[in-house]
Design brief:
Helix content is 43%, strand content 6%. It has 135 residues and is mainly α. It folds into two domains: 1-53, no CATH class; 56-135, no CATH class.
């Protein structure tokens, strides 16, 4: 049996959103949001589209820090692996300017939440949402 990705109504809406983002006017911010109840196919649609369009897809988890997020992004982009968060951020921006690509962050709602680790109640590093917004 041949595996086929079915373009449901929600997938078609996602494709439309991505096309609108990619074809936006100069100077218009390029950030989209996909949300909804579990089981509607959001992650599957994102994975399918990212593969077809050579996008960078990062999947967040509950323990992700700013450094970890930037490392994941840079693993797709660059041989250079700066140590500091600010240098890593600068490297991400430099790479996106030199080679523009779509950056998709799945499960972004985990960013900025309180750490789930039972050993600490420290809040996850604050620049996470700003990093996503600025990329």
């Amino acid at each position: 049996m041949k595996k086929v990705f079915v373009k449901t109504y929600n997938v078609k809406r996602f494709i439309t959103m991505m096309n609108n983002l990619q074809n936006r006017a100069e100077g218009v911010p390029g950030m989209g949001l996909v949300y909804g109840e579990p089981g509607l196919g959001k992650t599957q649609a994102i994975k399918w589209w990212a593969f077809k369009n050579d996008a960078i897809l990062i999947r967040c988890n509950q323990m992700m820090s700013a450094r970890w997020l930037l490392k994941e992004i840079l693993d797709y982009m660059s041989e250079i692996k700066p140590y500091s968060i600010s240098d890593s951020f600068d490297e991400v921006i430099r790479n996106l300017i030199l080679t523009p690509r779509v950056l998709i962050v799945d499960e972004v709602d985990y960013l900025g939440r309180y750490d789930k680790c039972k050993f600490t109640t420290q809040k996850v590093q604050p620049p996470l949402r700003q990093i996503i917004r600025n990329c």
